[in-house]
Design brief:
The chain has 676 residues and is mainly α. Helix content is 75%, strand content 6%. The chain is built from 25 helices and five strands. Strands 1-2-3-5-4 form a five-stranded mixed sheet, with helices on one face.
């Protein structure tokens, strides 16, 4: 499926608070800043304020930015000729040309660097180094725009970050560690990117006034963790971002936070939470008038609904994306959306509409191919025209020179041969590309078939396990009933008869050794009856059938508690009308988890929680024991009873999460969706 990669990239580059402002608001804000700096008496300080104002306008009005640089130079007077201020003037002029003339911008940055390196007064040395770090960061960004991402990373690591470290500016270091991480993330080097995100977080940890930077870091690091499929780590980063948001609830980065959170919950198949975050992100993007971000979020929602196999809702989201891409000049984005519209309409059985969108998609593809073809044709025509001019010149000069004419013909034949070679190479490449695409599609179909076979085998396995469980529960119930009603009654009758014999002997004669043995046998019979009832209750607890789930689980926790292991049970909002099969399944899951914890964890405390809310049933069993390695060989062999638990959960279409590590206890969280 096509992805809106270009839209997502543009969102990351454009998200700032000022993008939510109108042109009139920007003008009002800029004029307000200009009026404030008029009250500055010191000419040097006023000149620096004018340069900062120029930097503000460089993104919106290049001419106004130039005027403020010129006014700053006048304020400096003779000082403007010093290396330090000449370097600053070149720095701010480079910022003006950053978007409109990257080549000039790079030249200005290098002139600024050469001036800020030499003969700088001691009072300006730290500031000069900070400016050099900033200009190299901007220079690297221009290099990255040219497709040289690795060179950009090299500039940050060898130039910017060492300068920031030299002057002890941890905020500048943290921001550029994040820039390195984002560049590596775009290069799909996720492990390296994670290291630099962590370096940036360590620098900004606990720093006052750095909430916005930390929020940006948590969100981008979470995105990187999702790319590398480290879902638990992504969840912890998003939790940290959520805590940070509480202190800056008006942050302009909130839409991106919600968008990444939505992507996380989509990977967890919690589509309700994913949609909640996507809607929050979409509302924020619209509030900031950021159309690129809104389109990206809508497309994420479309993908979530496709994953959820809800093509009607997916189509609705695509229709919302459509106006955004139709307003843009990007043919690639239109190609992506039209393709998915055609595919989704086909899923819905709307074949006429699917044909319409496929036709639009084909037109875009043809246009892209035509543009490439026209560019190639123009290039060939230029070569041909050049050859013709050379031929004409040779014909004029070589009227009577046959040798020169022969040379000219040779060149012409060489040009024709080169043209033919180029055309053949192009046709070969197109054929190779088509063949490669066909092989890739065949491989994809094979993978899908294998996946379907795997899913079918898994369903058969679950059906077999379910049937086995049902048979086990019926047999347990029968044995428990036979033990309780049959053998239990017989033992109780024997006990009563022995008690009667003992009472007669006690009345007939004083206590003897034989009568004392008789009482000992009666006492042992009591213990046997109690043990038989305990076994019968464990096989099919009566409290589960007659008193409900909460009472039976409480009895189970009390029965399994030991002097060295305390078990705390809590229940919330549990009903009394659950299906018997559901009651038995929940009871067995908790029983198995408690058995594992008591046998293997060496825990002193176990917590069991069961609750119902929002149409879901939740089970949590946690302990403070020794834990285990979730990726170890023992766990892979399911040697501690996890296999039965996983199968029971899958039969009920539930979701199991295991959070554990060696020496840190274990937590099991289970969630079932209840039938409406």
């Amino acid at each position: 499926m096509y992805k809106l990669g270009i839209l997502i990239a543009s969102v990351l580059l454009s998200i700032t608070q000022l993008f939510a402002q109108t042109k009139e608001e920007l003008q009002h804000y800029g004029d307000s800043l200009y009026r404030q700096l008029q009250h500055i008496d010191d000419r040097e300080e006023k000149a620096l304020a004018l340069l900062d104002l120029s930097f503000f306008w460089s993104d919106y009005d290049a001419e106004k930015a130039r005027q403020y640089v010129a006014e700053s130079e006048k304020q400096l007077g003779d000082k403007s000729s010093t290396n330090y201020y000449q370097g600053l003037l070149h720095f701010y002029r480079a910022a003006i040309h950053f978007d409109i003339d990257p080549t000039t911008s790079k030249q200005q940055y290098m002139q600024a660097d050469s001036l800020l390196r030499k003969d700088i007064p001691a009072k300006n040395s730290v500031s000069a180094t900070r400016y050099r770090a900033r200009l190299w960061g901007s220079y690297g960004a221009l290099v990255q725009r040219e497709g040289k991402a690795h060179e950009y990373v090299q500039v940050l690591l060898e130039k910017v970050i060492p300068m920031a470290r030299q002057i002890g500016d941890s905020t500048l270091m943290g921001n550029n560690y994040q820039n390195v991480a984002m560049a590596l993330m775009n290069l799909e080097e996720y492990d390296k990117a994670n290291t630099y995100y962590q370096n940036a977080l360590d620098l900004l940890k606990g720093r006052a006034g750095a909430e916005e930077q930390r929020l940006t870091l948590f969100v981008n690091a979470a995105r990187n963790a999702l790319f590398s499929k480290q879902y638990s780590y992504a969840r912890s980063l998003l939790d940290s971002a959520d805590n940070t948001v509480k202190s800056i609830p008006t942050s302009s980065y909130l839409p991106i936070y919600h968008n990444v959170a939505g992507s996380y919950w989509e990977t967890q198949r919690n589509f309700d939470l994913a949609n909640f975050h996507f809607e929050k992100a979409l509302a924020g993007a619209k509030e900031q008038h950021n159309n690129d971000m809104a389109a990206s979020i809508l497309f994420s929602q479309f993908e979530a609904f496709q994953t959820r196999n809800q093509p009607a809702k997916a189509m609705a989201k695509l229709r919302e994306v459509l106006p955004y891409v139709q307003q843009q000049a990007s043919l690639k984005n239109k190609q992506m959306v039209y393709y998915n519209l055609a595919h989704t309409a086909s899923q819905l059985g709307k074949h006429e509409e699917a044909a319409k969108w496929y036709k639009e998609h084909k037109l875009i593809v043809d246009t892209l191919l035509t543009d490439k073809g026209e560019a190639l044709t123009l290039e060939l025509e230029k070569k041909y025209q050049t050859a013709e001019k050379e031929n004409e010149l040779l014909r004029v000069k070589a009227a009577n020179q046959q040798q020169q004419l022969a040379i000219q013909r040779t060149r012409l034949f060489a040009g024709i041969f080169l043209l033919t070679t180029v055309l053949l190479a192009m046709l070969s490449y197109m054929w190779y590309t088509a063949l490669k695409n066909r092989k890739r599609l065949a491989a994809q179909k094979e993978r899908l078939l294998q996946e379907e076979i795997k899913n079918s085998k898994q369903q058969e396995k679950l059906k077999l396990f379910n049937a086995m469980l049902q048979g086990q529960e019926r047999e347990r119930s029968r044995i428990a009933r036979d033990l309780h009603d049959g053998l239990g009654g017989m033992l109780a009758g024997v006990k009563l008869k022995l008690s009667a014999v003992a009472n007669r002997e006690a009345k007939a004669q004083p206590q003897t050794a034989s009568s004392m043995d008789l009482y000992t046998i009666i006492n042992q019979m009591d213990h046997s009856v109690n043990e038989l009832r305990r076994i019968a209750r464990n096989m099919m607890p009566e409290s589960l059938l007659y008193m409900g789930l909460e009472a039976s689980l409480q009895d189970l926790c009390n029965a399994m508690a030991q002097p060295q292991t305390q078990i705390d049970f809590q229940a919330a909002n549990l009903r009394t009308d659950y299906d018997q099969s559901f009651l038995i399944a929940v009871y067995r899951i908790v029983q198995e988890l408690l058995t594992n914890a008591v046998k293997h964890s060496d825990a002193s405390q176990i917590w069991v929680q069961c609750s119902e809310g929002d149409g879901h049933f939740y089970i949590s069993v946690e302990d403070n024991g020794k834990g285990f390695d979730p990726h170890g060989e023992e766990t892979k062999r399911e040697g501690i009873g996890l296999s039965n638990i996983r199968n029971r959960v899958e039969i009920l279409n539930g979701h199991l999460e295991v959070d554990t590590a060696i020496g840190k206890g274990a937590s099991f969280h289970i969630q079932f969706k209840l039938a409406e």
